[in-house]
Amino acid sequence: MAGQHVAIPSRDLLYHDLDAMAAAITPKTKLILLGNPCNPTGTIFKRDELARFMDRVPDHCVVAFDEAYAEYVEDPEYPDTLPYAREGRLTITLRTFSKVYGLAGLRVGYGIAHPEVARAIGLTCEPFNVSSLAQVAAVAALGDREHVRRSVAVNAEGKRYLYGELERMGLRYQPTEANFIFLDTGMDSRACFDGLMRRGVTVRTGDIFGPEFTTWIRVTIGTPEQNRAFIRALEEVLAR
């Protein structure tokens, strides 16, 4: 029997509304999904917010924390979700090697969960779902702390460069804790996408995230050269 998806509106369009999520829990609620940082906004909920939320989550609910971009977070109030599983709560913390570790093509990640949650996943996942090469690369990546340090540093530098350029251009953007920036171009996001594509730049259009974001785009923070190329292309598209 298929489950029913319940979507909770964001707070101020850009933030998870944990209070509203908690209020929406019923005896039928089985799984709660929380992205932190959130995609596409790059926003996070903080330690105190999560603690209040978890105090309201009943024991029968599984809480899944999608933390694909966690390594990029700079805010010291970013919550550590692993203690919840250690305390016996039905939680799973999901991480990936596709972002800061640079292994997107190998399709590998991991979850840290309460044993009961892990057993349930084991009963439903396909066998041999991660290749042996991906597993070897993932183990090696975990030990390569210098690569992670460099990746985080390049992202932080690029983020601040893009902030400055967007402010110079008078464009609204959402400060991010991830490796992308969500920004309002003031023009139709599909038209902006097409214009950028013709100039060799790929972004994600905001309209796929809801009717409130038809003028927004999400751009990944790249190398200094890529960031400069994006700004040049964006200025040309907006000028037209």
Summarize the structure.
40% of the residues lie in helices and 15% in strands. With 240 residues, it is α/β, with parallel strands linked by helices.
List the helices and strands and how they pair.
Layout: H1 18-24, E1 31-35, H2 47-56, E2 62-66, H3 82-86, E3 91-96, E4 109-113, H4 115-124, H5 132-143, H6 145-169, E5 172-174, E6 180-184, H7 189-198, E7 204-205, E8 216-220, H8 224-239
Parallel strand pairs: 1-2, 2-3
Antiparallel strand pairs: 3-4, 5-6, 6-8, 7-8
Kindly describe this structure.
This protein is α/β, with parallel strands linked by helices and 240 residues long. It folds into two domains: 18-143, 3-Layer(aba) Sandwich (Aspartate Aminotransferase, domain 2), CATH 3.40.640; 146-239, Alpha-Beta Complex (Aspartate Aminotransferase, domain 1). 40% of the residues lie in helices and 15% in strands. The protein has helices at 18-24, 47-56, 82-86, 115-124, 132-143, 145-169, 189-198, 224-239; strands at residues 31-35, 62-66, 91-96, 109-113, 172-174, 180-184, 204-205, 216-220. The strands form two sheets. A four-stranded mixed beta sheet has the order 1-2-3-4. Strands 5-6-8-7 form a four-stranded antiparallel beta sheet, with helices on one face. α1 runs parallel beside α2 and α6 (145-169) runs parallel beside α8 (224-239). The radius of gyration is 19 Å and the shape is globular.
